[in-house]
Amino acid sequence: MPKKGDARCPLLGNLFVILQPHLPVKTMKRQIKIWLECFRLRTLPVSLSGVVIAIGLAKWHHHFQLTPALLCLVFALLAQIVSNTANEYFDYLQGTDKPGRVGPRRGVTEGDIKPTTLRNVTFGLLALACAVGCCLIPYGGWWLLPVGIVIALAALAYSTGPYPLSYHALGELTVFIFFGIVPVNLTYYVQSLRWDPLVLLMSITTGLLAVNVLLINNYRDVDDDRESGKTTSVVKFGRTPAAFAYLLNGYTGMAILSAFWFMIAAFKVLPVWTLIIPVIYLVLHTVTWYRLKHRDGAALNPLLGETARNMLIFTLLLTIVLIIYS
User: Fold this and answer.
1) What tens digit of pLDDT does each residue of 199-249 get?
2) Distance CA 143, CA 134 (A)
């Protein structure tokens, strides 16, 4: 039987390393905090939002199925955590993250997590995500298998491989596809076995809002990234265009749904007061953008969670309305 932390049992074995139940309570709490920081919980609303809005649309269209919906939710969360831990591990290997960085603390860089442990946990969680994804095959068909493989590879290719996407100004495009287009459409499909134009539009909006979370991250880290040779879109085009893109993404996302908002206003497909939801989002979005323009360094860190929060608020409010009036 593998020993605690044995690489032959990367997920279960290193669970003991993560929790370390033999340690004093205070030390254990610190260990859990280190791993929660590694998982980057403040960004998880990004993966939740795409699945949640697809569930709301499926319920509104009378296609909701609990089991595939929950499987998609778990898969999306695991896939993002894998992407986050892989990013931390491979950035550490390439020397991109340094001790005392401006952004949130990186456990492996600061010596709180052993690199081999982080690697094993990453691939263990990836295996778990793949297992969850395979459970969706009975609902959506065998063609989901190659799609799942592409998603798994993308989670790693974002930070490693012969052409790391985040190192060549392709991070935003990757996020747009895999946190917008893919989760919204696939979550809806495995419940309904059909594609829908409104769902496609919603996935584009979701992707644009998700991109803003990465823009905040790259906006904050532009100096460190430039120094380490990591070419993000902000390094390539500068902070001023990045801030404008951040603002534009939010407004464009709401504008893309103009036909939906018109249907609500003209044909009452939902209560007219539903139109307050995009207004609430745009107010929050504009406030965050204003803060982005007037902050620097570590002061930008809270805006990462704030941007994810804005996205989740929009998604949850609209989903609640869709479910209530389904």
Assistant:
1) 999 999 999 999 999 999 999 999 989 988 899 999 999 999 999 999 999
2) 11
Q: Phi/psi at 308 (nearest 5 deg)?
A: -65, -35
Which pair of structure tokens corresponds to residue 71? 């499987």
φ, ψ for residue 105 (rounded to 5)? -60, 135
CA distance 192 to 18: 39
DSSP conformational letter for 102: S
Query: What is the enclosing helix (H) or strand (E) of 26?
Result: helix 25-39
Q: Are 85 and 14 in contact (CB under 8 A)?
A: no
The pTM (predicted TM-score) of the whole model is 0.90
Buried-exposed string 100-132: b where 16+ CB fall within 10 A, e elsewhere: ebbebebbbbeebbeeebbbbbbbbbbebbbeb
Domains of the chain, earliest start first: 32-324 (1.10.600)
- The kind and range of the H/E element at 281 are helix 276-293
| Cα torsion angle, 223, 225, 227, 230, sign | negative
- Residue ranges of alpha helices (H) inside 135-221 are 137-140, 144-157, 171-176, 182-192, 197-220
Residues 5-29 pLDDT 10s:
444 454 545 544 555 556 676 677 7
The closest of 54, 6, 14 to 207, measured between CA atoms, is: 54
DSSP 8-state symbol, 177: I
Distance (Å, whole) CA 187 – CA 301: 31
